Amino acid sequence: MHTRDDLIHFKPGKKFFVGLDSDGCVFDSMEPKHKECFCPVTIEKFGLAPISKYAREAWEFVNLYSQDRGCNRFFALQKTFDLLRRRSAVNRRNFRVPELRDLDAWTRRETRLGNPALRTEIERTQSGELKRILDWSLAINASVERVVVGVPPFPLVRECLARLQPAADIVVVSGTPAEALEREWEEHGIRNFAALIAGQEIGSKKEHLQFTTSGKVEPGFGLMVGDAPGDLKAATANGLRFFPVNPGHEEASWERFHGEIIGLFLSGGYTQEIEDGLVREFQSCLPEKPVWE
């Protein structure tokens, strides 16, 4: 698996650069991962059965149907618990949502928000809270590996990668653990299209793009493809164009990318004006607040 140094020392071999998110963007895996793995494990490991209905609604809103879609799992846990603390139905049941003070402190300091960095923090602090969170995170990984099998890329993804590869260095830019990324890209025969696969252990998406493109990719020659607002923010922070895969309309997005946008991008015609129009459409898919607020 690739390291932080691999990204920092990456030398482009092509004129163009394309970063790709994986879950929910390349693979139709967000729904099964969160509904069948992440959420049930969270309910079990944090004793949320008395409020399971509300926990499920909050988890799915944060991770699938809001402006926080695609955020790192540790941020997702914080945001979900924050929503639950504010929900009147939860408070009426006198349920005490667990505090995450040690997690809050760690995520404010650390950018490589994965299990290796969490283990290092546990060794340093001996935090019981963080040990519980590591157990939760490892259980999620085991559930994903067991349950999320045979989920293919969206239609036309493979064709898009084949069109891009002769002209562009393709890098996977993801908040998913690298082991799962490598397994999924290999399972479906598309691993050979990616020059690098960057997972959560080696930094944020913003850092992934910074390491691989800063001073290396000329303006207008870099593109990030993603399905979450965090992907857009990472692209913007690094001066890259962005193409959104709209949640709920992924197949139509890939059809547009294949039939129109790749050609525009490679010919220099994917302008800010075109991107802005697509971003407005993308942002309308994801609300900031849940319906119960």
Question: Which terms would index this structure?
Answer:
5-stranded parallel beta sheet, 2 domains, 293 residues, Rossmann fold, 14 helices, alpha/beta, 54% helix
Name the helicity range: 40-55%
Uncertain regions: pLDDT < 50 for 5+ in a row?
none
CATH homologous superfamily assignment of the largest domain: HAD superfamily/HAD-like
Number of helices: 14
Query: Largest sheet, if any?
Result: 5 strands, parallel
- If you compute it from the alpha carbons, what radius of gyration comes out, rounded to the nearest whole angstrom? 19 Å
Strand order of the largest sheet: 3-2-1-4-5
CATH topology of the largest domain: Rossmann fold
What is the approximate shape? globular
What structural class do the secondary elements suggest? Answer: alpha/beta
Strand residue percentage: 5-15%
Order of helices and strands: HEHHHHHHHHEHEHEHEHH
Give the termini separation. Answer: 42 Å
Outline the structure in words.
This protein has 14 helices and 5 strands. The chain has 293 residues and is α/β, with parallel strands linked by helices. The protein folds into 2 domains: 156 residues, HAD superfamily/HAD-like (Rossmann fold, 3-Layer(aba) Sandwich), CATH 3.40.50; 118 residues, no CATH class. It has a 5-stranded parallel beta sheet with strand order 3-2-1-4-5, sandwiched between helices. The longest helix is centred in the middle third of the chain and has 20 residues. It is globular and about 60 Å long. It starts with a helix and ends in a 10-residue tail after the last helix.
